[in-house]
Amino acid sequence: MDAERVSADELDALRAAFGVDCGNGNGSGADGNGDAGGGSSALGWAGVRRFEAEHGVLLPEPYRTFVAEVADGSALGPPEYGLAPLGADAGQNGGRKRELARPFPLTEGWVWEDDPRPAAQIEPLLDRVFGDGSVVLGTDGCGMYWHLVVSGPHRGQVWLITGEGAVPFGAEFGHTGGAAGFAGWVRHWAADRPWFDED
Question: Could you read off the pLDDT of 124-138 as tens digits, one per residue?
Answer without folding.
Answer: 999 899 989 999 999
